[in-house]
Every structure is written in C-alpha cells, then in structure tokens.
Fold each of these.
Amino acid sequence: MNISVSKKHFLRINTWDDIYKMSGYTDSLDPKKEKLKQVINKYELPNKGKCGLSNCRTPHNIGCIVETESGRLTNLGNDCGKKYFGENFTSLSNKLSKEIDYSNKIENIKLAKLNIAENYRKLNEIEADWKRIESVYRAIKSEGLDGLYDKLEQMKHSKSSIIAIQRRATKPEIELEEVRTGKDVQNPFYISDNLGDLKGLNYLTNRTKIKTIILNNKIALERLNNFDEDKTTLKELSKMIKENEKLNDSVREAHCIITDGFKLFSADNMRQFTPLISSKRHRKLRRFLNCCFES
Ligand SMILES: [Zn+2]
C-alpha cells in the first residue's frame, strides 16, 4: 500500500468541543453549495451532537469530519456523507480508514519496541525462577524420595490435588459400610483418608512449556527489534502486531506456571506428604523441605 501517512498525526477526538474548536469549522454547511475535498478525521463519541449540514442537523454520535473545496470543515454521519456527496465520500472515507488503521498499527509497533527491554527483563526473571523451581523438583530424586516423586507423577496424571492415604478400615467403619450398602464387605477393606489438598499441581503438567515460551519470545523480541515499521506493508505490520500480542499472552501464561511452581514446592505444601513417607526417610524429607520455598 502506498501511504505516506506514517508520520501523519491523527488528532484524537474525545469530545464535541474538540470538533467545534477546529479552525474552519462550521455547524451549518450547505451541501448543495460545497464540493467535498477530503475526509480528515473520524469520531465515535459517548453523547450525541448535531450533524453539521444545514439541511440535516440530526443528532448522532458516530461520524467524520469533512473538508470542502472552500476550506470549510464540518461534521456529519456516514449516511449524510453518502447521501449528499455520493461515491466520492465513500472512497475518501475508506481511504482515511485505511490511513488511520495503518497509522495506529505503526504506533502499536513503536510502543511495543519501547517495551523490548522490559520484556527481556521479564523473560530473564521467568527463566531464573524456573531454574530455582526445577532444582527443588530435582532434589526430590537426589534426596532419594522416589516415593514422593512417583506420588506427584500419579497425581499429575489423575489431575487430582487430593492427598490421600489408604488404611485398613476399623470394625465400626466396616459395620457402617455394610449398613450403607446392605452387603458384606470384602476383607481386607481399605478406607482412604484425606490428608490435604495440594496447591500448584498444574506446574507439573505445564513445566515443559516454560522453555519453549522463553525461546520463542526471545526470537520474537529480536524480530521486533529489527523490524522497520516505516518501510513495510500493512500485512507485515499486522503480522508483527499479532506476534507481539502472542508474546504478551505467553509471558502472562509463563507467570501463572511459575506461580504454581512456587506454590507446589513451598515447604508447607510438600509437608502434607509426611504421613505417606516412611519414618526411615524422614531425615531425607526434612533435608528436602529445607530446599523448598517459604509459603
Ligand atoms: Zn446529517
């Protein structure tokens, strides 16, 4: 697209006064006496104002500012534009829409570029946190707490955060079960006691995403850094904006995963497994809990 408006500044219209104060503005333009020169701005306002055509004056809140050959400016709705200035209005209005879109996209990229350093900082922070969490995760195995490791794997696959322990039912519990079901229970009969609810279990499902997120985003930031928004096509601009939105979304996602990781490997959360670990290994467990995060 051959638009040399990348440096053109579109004044944002926020109130009707912004329009009335424009130099050359008239609130009573006679369309029969004027020839349309250009559509110069668009607005969408919260309250209604009158159409600037002397034969219309219908209140509306979405419209555009037009300039006529005589140098006068007024505001009108799209219906009036088409009705009084015909095809010429439609094509000038479409041209302006494209220019505004193009200019907004360039602004968007310029803003994204200002955030590059901050995004690098965020990625490095995510990477450092991820490494800390992973080293705690590895400590489970290096401390020889394989039972705990397997339990976490099992909970990850079942997607259940309930920490439970199985034990033989007591005599009254067996009797209660027989009354409840109206049948003799099979011996031995086991009951599952809930020990607690594990926080942050999703970390285990999502932990491998972090590496990809960091890698992809560093590539995306470098591409953004090298991108020349003043010498490009609308299509390339749109692509770069989408990529940047994806980057922001995935940084948010990575933050959620990291938060889960800190919750999962907090000492209080992991301590809930103590009754499931044989007392022989409690010294190892204490050493592991010391590696864990403060809650
Ligand atoms: Zn009108």
Note: The chain has nine helices and five strands.
Amino acid sequence: MGKTASISHVRIAKSQCPICLETHSHNVPVLIHKELKDIKEDETWCAPSLCKEHDEMSKDYLGIVIISNDAPKEPNAVIKEEQANRTGKYVMMRRDAANELFDEDLSKLEFIFGDLELLNVLKALTPTKH
Ligand SMILES: [Zn+2]
C-alpha cells in the first residue's frame, strides 16, 4: 500500500450566511493553493454569502435580520455588519409584502437590518402559525 496522497492543498471554502449565521459551503469557490501547499482549515473563510436555504428563498423573500441597536438618527441609515448588534432573530418576509411596507426599493438586497420595533410591527402583520 502506497502512501495516500494529501489533497489538503485543495479545499472547499467556507462562508457564513448573513441571515441565519450558519456556516456553509453553498456557492463558494474551491480553493487550490497555487504552490500546492497545504491550506489550513482556518484559511478557508470567504466573504459572507447566503446559505442554500436562504439563497433559494431570496427570489421571493427578503431577509430581515433583527438587531438591538438604537434607532439611527436618520431614517433608512445604512448599518454596517460590524456595527450591528444581532439578536439572533430574523424574519423572512415576502418581497411583495415588503414592497408595500417599505418605501424604498429593496429588490436588489438579500436582507436588511431591522430593529425590535420593526419586529413587533411584523409580528402584528403576520398571522400566528399553528
Ligand atoms: Zn441562511
């Protein structure tokens, strides 16, 4: 028996879903070390991207990631990922419903941040599931 060839210079990248924070390898590149050296496990992170489930939903649903930040001084302010105080809650809202609720065109966005106040509004709009 020969020695098993190491293929650790080829790895599938890891990404994190910005909506549910799940670690996944959906739609990520395969990494190949250009000098065929080992790629370490912690070197495989690539930019955040949607997991399979949320990628499939994103055509019809807008993700609303609930954060506990204080309300911004300006309406529709942009909150950077590193500034967001995630609560771990998120809501997938049908895009047609989101279009009615928000004045802005959100069709190009995969998700938005919303505060707890918005979550209460959404809860009031959504019929309770049994
Ligand atoms: Zn996800």
Note: Residues 17, 19-20, 22, 50-51, 53-54 surround zinc ion (CB under 6 Å).
Amino acid sequence: MSLKKRAFPTHMDIELSSKCNLRCRFCHLSYFTPKEITQLSTKDVRDRIGPFLPHLKSLTLFSKYEALTCRDFIPIFEEVSRFDIETYFSTNGLLLNDDIIDAIAGKLTYLTVSVTGFMPETYKKNMQFDGLAKVTANLHRLNARKAELGTEYPILRISTVGMLDTIDELEMAIDFAAEHRAAEGVQVTFLKAMGPEMVPFMPLCDLDTFGRRAREASEYAEKLGVKFVLQSGAITDNLKETKDLGHRHCGIPWQRMSVQPNGDVYPCPVTSTTVGNMFDQTLEEIWAGDELAAFRAGVNDPENMNEDCRNCTHCRHRSIARRESNDFSEAGSYIGEMKRKTRKAKVAN
Ligand SMILES: C[S@@+](CC[C@H](N)C(=O)[O-])C[C@H]1O[C@@H](n2cnc3c(N)ncnc32)[C@H](O)[C@@H]1O
Ligand code: SF4
Ligand code: SF4
C-alpha cells in the first residue's frame, strides 16, 4: 500500500454533534462523557472546512455520536451536497423526520441505520428505548420517498452489534435488511465492552460459538441474496492479519482527517491524540504539520508504535483477539478523549 503524503485528504470524517438521543446499553455514551458537548454550525463548516470540500472524494458526517441531533444538519448537508462528494452517515434512525428525509433522498450516497434487537423487547433491552416500531416506520417513509423520486439513494445498510447475547438474532437482522431493501445488507460490529457487565458478551470470550453463528447467518444471507459483512472480518482472517502488528496495516492518516465539533482534529476517528484545532489553525496547516507527521510515523512501525495504534479500536483494523483492543471496562478514558462517568452521573443519564 502506498503511504505517499497527499496535498489534501481524500476523505474527511466530520462529527456534526457530540450528542445522542439514545444511551444504548453497549455504547461508549452510556459510560463516558465527550470531551465537549457541542455541535457544528453551517458557518463553521463553510468557513473552516469549506476549502477542503472541493478536494474530497468522500465525506462521513458522523464519527462517534448522532449526527441527526445537530441543529444545522439540513443546511450543513445542503452545503456539502453542492460538491461532487460521496456522502455517508450512520444513525439510530429515530430522528429521521420528513424534513430530513426530503433533504437526503436522492442526494446522500450511503446511510447506515443501527439496530440491535429485532424484537420490540430485545430492541428495548439493547437500545434502552422502545423504538423498533418508530425506526421501522421511518425506514418505510424513507423508502417510499426514494420510490417517489425514482432514486436508489441513500443506499441503505443495517448495522447491528455482534455480541454473545445478540448473535441469535442475526437471521432476523437479515430479514429486516431484506424488508427495508437495504442494498448494502447487514454489517456486524464486534462488541467492545465499555463496562464490566458487558465483558462476558465480547466475541473474544467465545470465538468458536461467535464464529459458528456468524457462518450460519452468512449462509442464510446468501440464500436470501442479502449482503452480510462482519466489520472486523472473518475470525480466522482477523486473527492472521492482526497477529504481528496488533492491528491490520493502516493507511488512514495519509488519506483522511477527522474533525470534532469543538474543532479538534484527529488523525483517524478512533484516536485520542489531537493534531491541532481547526479554530486555531487552518486545516491545510494541520494536514501538513509536524504533529500529524509524528503520528503517522508511529502507525505501522512495530518498534515505534503509537499506543492508540497498538490497541487500535477501529472495526476494520482492530484485532478481535487482543483484550486491549476490545475491553475498555476498566479504562478511565476512551477515544476522542472521552472521560469515564462517575456512577452517579451514569445513573443520571
Ligand atoms: C457509536 S454509533 C454512532 C452513530 C449512530 N449514533 C449510530 O448508532 O449509528 C456507530 C456504530 O457503533 C456501534 N457501536 C456502538 N457501541 C458499540 C460497541 N460498544 N461495540 C461495537 N459497536 C458499537 C453502533 O451500533 C453503531 O452502528
Ligand atoms: S444511537 Fe449510536 S451514538 Fe447513540 S447511544 Fe446508540 S450507538 Fe451510541
Ligand atoms: S488507531 Fe487504528 S485506525 Fe487509527 S491510525 Fe492507528 S491503526 Fe489506524
């Protein structure tokens, strides 16, 4: 893989808001507090990110939180849609109202809708909200609008968290993707444990059972003609490819840049190492700067590896067997400099 430095990134991840309307049982937001709870405005995007937009091939409009909680979601989306860029975000789908559906239908390239629990009671257990009927209705309305416009966009995908007490619902996830004409099918993320009660459900606690159920689901998906992707890869491939480095070879900091709504810039969506702030410096300065260069030097070098990279948590690069990359139940902080909530604060949320 070529790791040549480019004049501009070809991809950006822009976090529009560090809030969410849910507190899913498994999510970092149930256990950690973002460094700053804030959101981007249309002006921020126009003034600070605008100069990069003509150079991008693709743009992800979320990173760790819920993009649809951003007050300016629609004008920001209109602003970035003026450029010929592939656009994408992931959402729990509960805030997909008619105005948002009108704004994205025919324009957004990819939309992932995250659902863990495909029966009302298992959805409620995992997402901590009785919302399966609502997300189902929203997906029907989005598909109706797409049909009216005669467009395939946004291309849909259903994402579900793979853990030892949800793997028996993978076939239901596949049926759900088929029902909602999700051309990108089902993607399964592998649980990272944020608190001690989630540790026993990590795939690494029983890779044989997890692997067997995932294979069975994959066969079922094939019969139905639904795409089925394990985001960290098939278990045997992941174990082989992450054995030496602790993560798969990674080129992200040479291709993309990740921005948080407080302006902090990170070399990838899962680090806690800032390389500048876009309200203090231009993105061009940060992209060409010494801090990002120093980080890049520690991405794939086993002798001089960044701590973040050694224990990489990125679905596509991380080891599923290393406890350090999957178990954050005792960690005081998490990616993007989130801090663990106190017990009292957690209950309050
Ligand atoms: C953190 S969410 C942010 C975007 C949006 N709120 C959503 O839920 O799609 C991104 C993805 O991470 C998944 N996810 C959340 N917590 C996870 C965990 N502990 N382990 C694995 N995947 C997780 C979610 O299911 C979702 O598909
Ligand atoms: S909807 Fe997404 S960001 Fe919100 S709590 Fe659930 S997984 Fe986390
Ligand atoms: S933390 Fe992971 S995804 Fe980020 S640069 Fe390092 S290896 Fe790549």
Note: The chain has 13 helices and 13 strands.
Amino acid sequence: MFLIFALAINYFNHNKLWKIIMTQLRQYAILLALSMLLPAAGLAQVTTVFSDDFNTSQGSGFTTSGQIGTSAWSVTRITSANDFGARIHNNELTLTNDASTAPNGNGWVFVSTPTAAFSTPYNPTLSSNTGVVTWTFNMRQSRPNPAGFRPIPPNNDYGVAFIIGCTSTDVHTSGDGYAIVLGNLGSPDPVRFVKFTGGISSLGNSNTGLIVAGSPLDDPKNNYMSIRLTYTPSTNTWELFGRNDGSSGFADPTSGTLTSFGTVVDNTYTSVPLNFMGAYWQGSTAANQTSTFDNVSVTVASAVPDYTGAPSGISSGTYNNVTFTSGGSFTAGTTVTVNGTLQLNDYAIDLNGGSITMGASSTLQLGTNSQGRVFGGTFTHTVPAALSTKVFPFGTAADRRHATVQYTIAPISGGTLQGTYTNSPAPNQDFSFVSPVGVTAPFYWTLDAGGGLSGGLYTFTIVADNVPGVNNAPQLRIVKRPTGGGPWSIDGIFASSTLSGNTVTIIHNSMTGFSEFSIGSDPNDNPLPVELASFRGSVTSRGVALSWVTASEKNNAGFMLVRNGSVIASYQFSPELRGKGTTTAVTNYAFLDANVETGQTYTYQLRSVDFDGSVHDYAQRVTVEVREPIQPPVFTYNLEQNYPNPFNPTTNIRYSIRDAGLVTLKVYDLLGREVATLVNQAQPPGNYQVTFDASRLTSSGMYIYRLQSGNFTRTMKMLLVK
Ligand SMILES: [Ca+2]
Ligand SMILES: [Ca+2]
Ligand SMILES: [Ca+2]
C-alpha cells in the first residue's frame, strides 16, 4: 500500500456519520430501556434485611427496660438507679437522660435489636455475608460539645453512638464490636467509625478511630446528620459516608449525596457474631438531654457472580471474575463490569456496541501470547490516585492494537479512563504543526478521562501487529490531538520504537492528559497508509464528476476507476488518472465520467496500482444517481503522448475524433518506414485508446506515430527501449 490520501472531511460523509451515530444512540437507548426491564443475570441484588423509620408511635412515655411497646427494640441501661430511657414517638427514636420526674444521674442507655432476626441473607458474622453490607441512619444529640465515653461511674461524659454490631447488651462495660460515635475530650468532636473491646467505655474520651470524619462532619455538634457505613466482606473494607443536615431536622439518609470519609480495612470482629445493633446514649444530670435516631436500615448485596464462557453468553451486569473461553461477539449493547479478574486469554472479542468496565480492584489477564483483544465498544479502567498500569486491550478481529497507560507520577485525583479504538483513519486530519510527521496509521485510540481523574505523568506504550506501511520502525511516533480534530502533536518524550516480527512497539514517556492517539511518521520513512477519506462524486450536465485528494504518494503509477464493479478508466489511457510516483505534496485528482445515462445509478470505487504492479482497492464508495439529462459530449481532434514512454514492449495511445470519418493511426521509424498500422477504419466522434505492442520490433530507438482523420493530422514521438 503506497498511497497516502489526504483526509479532507466530506460534508456528505459527515452527515452520514452523524445519522449513523444517532441511529446507534437510539438503539442503545432502546437496549438500555430493555436492560432496565429485564433482570440482569450479572447484577448483584441488594436486599434490605432490616429497616425502621420509627413512624409507628409506641407511646410518648419513655421505656426504661425491656421492649419498647411492640417494636423490635429493647432498652438496656445502667444497673444503678438513674433516669435514662427511650421512646419511639413523633416518628423517631429518642434516648434521654430524663425519662421522668425522677432525679437524673450519670448513666447510659442502649436501645438494641437482635441481628439474628434480620432477614436473609444477613449474617451477624459480618465476614460471612454474601456481599456489601450497608448501614444507613440518622443521628443527632443535644450537646454542643459532648465529652466522650469514659466509664460511668466515676465519670459523667456525654456521648452518642450507633452500635453497628456488638456482642453484649451491656455495651457500656462489656462486649466487643463496631460503632459510629460522636464525643471526645475538648473540641472539635468529629464523627468517628470505631471498634471497641470490652465495652464502648473503653474508648474513653479519645478522638481517634478507624475512620475519622472530615468536613462536613468534622464537628457537627448538635446538628442533625445522615450517615452510611459500608462493609465489603471479600476485602474487609469499611467506608464511612455522612452529611450534615443542619439544625432543624433529619433529611432522608438514603437520598441525595453523602460525602465519603474514606476507607479502612479491619477484620478484628468480622469473624464473630455481632448479635446486637442499636442506639446508645450516655451522660450526666442536666435536664432533658437527648439523642435522636431515625430511618435505620441495613442492606446486604447478594454475591457477585463469576462468568466463564463465550462472549455471546454473558449478560449485562456486575461480575467478580470473568473468563472468556472463546472469541466471538457480545450480544448487542451488553455492558459488563468486572470487579475481580478479567481473563481475555488470546481471544478477539467484538463488544458489539457494548462495554467492559474494570472495577477499582480488578485485574486484566491476557493470554500467553498477550493477544487478548476487544473491539467495537468501550473499555474502561478505574484509575486510582496512585501509581498504576492500565492496559487497554484493543485490536481487530485479526490484529492486536494494545495501548497501555503506566503512571510514573500518580494522578492528583483518581477517576476513570474510558477507551475506544477505531479501525479507520481519524477524521479531520490536520498535520499543520507536526512536521515531519505527515501521515498517521489508519486507526486511532480515544481515551477519555472521567470521574475527576486528573494530573500525573504516564508512559504510553502502543503494541500493534501488522501495521501496514512500516519501512523504518524506529521513526514511528505516538501522536496525539484534541478529540475530534485539530493538529496532531508528538506527545511526551519519545523513548523507543521497535519492530519485532510483525509487532511494532512504541513508547513515549512523560505524557499528560487524554484525547485521541495514533501512530505517526514522516511518510518517507513509513508511508503508513491512510485509506481514502475524501472521494466525492457529483452529477454535472456533462456527466459524473469525481474528485479525490492524496496527501502524499509512494510508488503510485496511477488509478483505475471502477464503476459498478467494472474498470471504466485507467491511468494507462487517461493522463488525469496517472499518479505522482513518490511525493509528499498534496495532489488533487478529477475525472469526468461522461458515459452515463439519465435515470441510472452508479457506484464508483478507486483502485491504485504501484509501479511494481501491486493493486490496492479502496473501500470508500461514491454512489450517484443521474437524474438530469446529460448533454451529448462534444469532442475535438486530439492525439496524446503515448503512455508509458519510454516503453517496452507495449504502450498506449489515446486520441479523440471530432467528426465521423476514416481514421488512420500508423507507426513509422525515423527513416519514414511504416512499421505498424494501429487504426485504419471509419470511426464516430469520441475518445479512443489503442495499445501498441512493439515486441516484434528488434531495435530500440525513437519511433513516430501519426493520426489522420478529415483535415486533422498530428505526429508524435515515442521511445522504445529494448
Ligand atoms: Ca421517622
Ligand atoms: Ca428526671
Ligand atoms: Ca467534646
């Protein structure tokens, strides 16, 4: 392939492309709607195993021991006499130090519910749950500066807690577990996720924890709060989220946005049954000091399934491990998220408009030949704010086109990188600022940063098999441009480019940002072929006018024009179809097909021929319908220079006849002796071409050819080189 076509985008094709995009978007929308209606096999189900909005009043009086009315909650409190208690009333759960007119005292109260009674699939042994466990609730206490959880007696600290799970209802002084707490020595008093050993009073008045909330719960004082805690059994990872709902009342903790306060891995009490969950309040003797809770719910995600099989068998959804056992195609629009390991093996998989998203802890494994590849859809990586290497295993059905992002300086913030690979030339080519790069490979990658991904430096590696037009691999470069167009640039710092077997590996260091990438080169080094992007046709009163542009050419003898599958014109006869050999200059071509009929539809394609005879057919087609009457062509007498010239042993001679009549075309040697009669007959007006075969002539040298018809006579020279 030695022809390099300029990529002047064609308005017609642009519109067509847009229609295709819109059609596909509509198809995706329909598929998306369908996928919402149909149960997705790979989707982890989330089950609510316990919930209480406390909207069923159990009376305005406070319970000081045992079950609160008919609710799921029971009261435990300090065994020495004081006035702690709790009630479910006014649509919330309230814990108080002042349940009655009896004297208040230093003490505590725990309103618990037995976790063994939660619905399936909850397991009080947290690590035995099938998937992520989530606790959601509202919490608030009345003190502007709660003091903590030191043992009572002798202390008198105010502190509030939501006990995620514990082993004893005597939670102040005994049992182990996890809690969300508020209250410590001095200020501020951040919300904290803590574990405790031997009762919650073991926390004392410290301000530490497994996770200590930042803003907006770094010092909520007596504001209302929404809180969520998640626990992932497979990794023993906890994550705390929260929201400050202000001073007037609770907001729904399950809606809106809660801020993440980070994650922690802890398995101290995840392998023992934590049999009680509940609300806790401790404090002293001030009048009517309360803590309040609402909208308590616990959910458990079902196990995330694995998938092993053909690409055609996988359904949209989230999976743990995915292993493909063959190549093939997704069902159209299938979207797959992989949390564990994606084993592509060495297969080629057509994503068929769908996608694969790699979760934060996922791993991509290619086959032993690293040939695993996907195409026809998006491949997305979750990128942490840390050093990581992300392989985008793109390719075609036949060839690998892997692109790898390896961070050498971590991103400032993590996010996602969504990649696509397009196995055709990038549209809107612009080489204005990248000299000497004047050509790109006929394919490109698009990487889009999302989810806040920013910053960092990365090494970009392209591994591509069977890249056409590579003659001088060390001169290949990775080029980048704004998504959708604009000038290409050589991005980052070139490190190396090598060709091993059929595999090109190009590495650039110190790259930043993401958009569109391709392989570029000076076409004199590597005439990376660009397929025909600009090939236009239009109907004129004289026929179908065709035009196309090359940005550079190499070894190009010329073009043939194929109409409805048949060659109708060749560079051998038509000078306007002759190529420029090797050049990096832009060349415009035009050809008029006058031999057309009104009412017919014609489809044209271009074929190029190298000087060595290699033939290249271009995929692009131009189809035109001739609706207007075509004026009969008007011809003038003409005799053109033979082609090729010099020649051996054949050459072509083209001529035109204006008026019908006898036409003679004869060849003479320099002594005037006739050596061949090529035409000697009556011909109607038109363009003609004839081939002269000089194989029977023995001597090299100059010959003369003469055309005679009517009053027209013209003589030309040609050179036979034996
Ligand atoms: Ca409520
Ligand atoms: Ca009282
Ligand atoms: Ca405090």
Note: The CA atoms of residues 102 and 480 lie 78 Å apart.
